[in-house]
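Before the break, one more example. Copy the sequence into your notebook; we will annotate it together after we see the structure.
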Amino acid sequence: MAIQEALEEESTKDTPSFGSEDLEEIHRSCTEAGLQGIYNFPGAVYATDRSNDKGVMGAGYFKLDEHRGGCCQVGRGEEGGSSNRAELGAACLALEDAKRKQSRKPIILLSDSACFLSSSQKWTGEGKSPSMHGNPDADIMRDIVQLLRERIKQGLLTIFIKIKAHRGDPLNELTDRWADEGRQSENIRWSLPTNRPIFYWTDNGTTHCSPMNPTVKKRIDFQVAQQQLKIHTGSTANFSTREDNSRDLLGKFHKQRSVWIRAR
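Here is what the structure looks like once it is written out:
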């Protein structure tokens, strides 16, 4: 019966379980989280993750000691999907859950995103004065910073730990399922638009959209470089239109950095 149910399952992902069999406990103890002793941590352990597909972002978390989770859809997908934005949303959901529970236990937040931890690092420690100006995800980061400040004032410990993704760790895998569910959720958070210009372009039949970023700048440079020159007969115009020279070469350079220049 179990094999038949697995064959009929529409999801392409397995559902990890927290069984009590000896082999299951051995498996958990040998995962990255298990080797760090996280499964025996005396406080609360939250695993966070994001899901981003076709411009729809989902954020989710899983709480180890209570074996439950939560999720939401992260707004501003029309401005271009961002993995880091959804990761921030997942961490904020976990911190909000800890606040609601009014627990005074220390917290560990597990994340498989090095980008998320790097963007959060500058807000910790002394002697730093970062600014929200220019931060595309400032709306979520403000909430995270405020929640962390409240925990610090109460003398509560919060630890962020990076773990590798999709290595069979039940914590990471279960959080991944919650994040997928978040993309379908009707609970949409952090959806206030930034009113930034949105650029649209089509590549190989697929339409992309994004605010100004390095990818958009590269695309603009490429399109400008491919524009046709007016018909002239001068030496400069002839040189500019020759293959592997000037404008033609610039277009190839922005499309692919490794350009072979043939000697003339």
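The two ends are 71 Å apart (CA to CA). Residues 83-101 form the longest helix (19 residues). Try to locate both features in your own notes.
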